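Re: weekly structure request thread

Next one in the queue (150 aa):
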Amino acid sequence: MRWQGQVLVNPVSPKGIIDLEFAKTPEKLSTLKAVWIKKDVKTNIYLDFLFIISYTWFFILTCLYIKKRTSTNTIAWVFITIAVLAGMLDLIENCLMLFAIDHSNNARALKFTYYFALLKFILIGILIFYLILSISFLRIKKFKIQLDKH
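Done, posted below.
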């Protein structure tokens, strides 16, 4: 994604496609559209659909792995739900960005895109925090078991 999206990075949009995700106003969108090639933006968004499937599946499998090795059944399902919700928000956000690229005067679509992106990033941050803590806990638990054997 970063390799293909590099064509969207420039002084006007130093963060590439993320600048579109957080473009809340038609003026900001117009500025981005003035420096981007529409085909490149759409290609990046279409590739992101594949990335969404990949990261959502990865998060689900990792949560299931943690669920299998701990007694946190309910918590694991909560975080699986968070992973699916983040993926769904990202799908909707991508559709809204495609719409915005073709209809730049729609401020409402841009605001929804902004808030969906913000919520998606917050949920993914919470999910990653949970995964890091859980996997760290599993490694500590495994290490303790190995120490007890010796």
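Helices lie at 2-5, 17-21, 26-35, 38-69, 73-102, 107-149. The first helix runs from residue 2 to 5.
Next request, please.
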